Amino acid sequence: MEKLKFVHLTDTHMNAPGADNPFAKLNLADKVKRVFAHIEAASVKPAFVVITGDLTHEGNVQDYEYIRTIIDEGSSLLGVPVHVVLGNHDHRAPFREGFLKEEASEQPYYYSHTIQGVRLIGLNSQVKGQHHGEIDAEQLAWLEDTLSTPAENGTIVALHHPVLSINGMPGDHVLANREQLGNVLEGTDVIGVVAGHVHTNNVGTYKGICHVAATGTAFGGEAAEDNHFKIVDFCGYNVVSVYEEGITVQTVVMPGLQEEFFRFPVEALMAHN
Questions:
Q1: Cα 115 from chain centroid (whole Å)
Q2: What is the mean pLDDT of residues 100-105?
Q3: Per its UniProt record, what PANTHER family does this chain match (predicted)?
């Protein structure tokens, strides 16, 4: 019997209007608004929404203030909480100041919330100034202690960097210390791990647990000919259903032109920090 559904979004890459970066002109916040409207119109009725990082594209305090208004509007429309984690394009101090309305700090942002018996754990896999991700020792110790007490309907872990490799992607796109994380999760009540970063859907198992990487709302990425990687106009989200025995994942593709924005050599992707 289904326990609940939740919606998994990722890689929104939003900025406040007038921001000065290559993605600002694409109105990526409008895509997020359309996704929330689509979820509501489709009567998905999720218990919560989780966004797995790259909330902004190199944002400042004003960008995070604007993103908070977009997310609060979506939360109000659906009548459910929207939880977030940070990605490699996010910045901790501006996020805490602009989004959380807290004192600026470089402390990692992680948490545990329980919704209808399902525990959602958000981790901060972001490494400042780097493209790759890692879960630090502080979080791993906290995670192990938290998971020592099972949740009524199991646990979902959310982070930005996935543990599974993607066809056409260099190795630094997966979590650098995935084995350490996997060892902490193995044998616990964790029934699913959701992530982003790779801008494409990828589902598999690692140490017996289902791992899901979702495409971004901002754009999709895919391997192209001549050892290139292309960025296309794509937008989607995942509906994850939680059952006694585990989870199922339904990918929803939003209507769009799916035309190519740009492409670059895979070597450039590997060199990016």
A1: 18
A2: 97
A3: CYCLIC NUCLEOTIDE PHOSPHODIESTERASE CBUA0032-RELATED, PHOSPHOHYDROLASE
Handedness of CA 3, 74, 158, 196 (dihedral sign): positive
In the chain, DSSP assigns E strands to 2-9, 49-52, 82-85, 111-115, 118-122, 155-158, 190-195, 202-206, 209-213, 220-224, 228-232, 236-243, 246-253, 260-265
Asked if residues 130 and 164 have their Cβ atoms less than 8 Å apart, the reply is: no
Nearest to 13 by CA among 64, 50, 62, 49: 64
> pLDDT category, 273, cuts 50, 70, 90?
very low
Bridge partner residues of 231 (DSSP): 221, 262
* Chain centroid to CA 230: 20
| Separation of CA 21 from chain center | 21
Pairing mode, if any, of strands 202-206 and 190-195?
Answer: unpaired
Tell me if residue 96 falls in helix, strand or coil: helix
Task: Name residue, tokens 């208004």.
Answer: 69
List the helix and strand counts (H, then E) for the chain. 6, 14
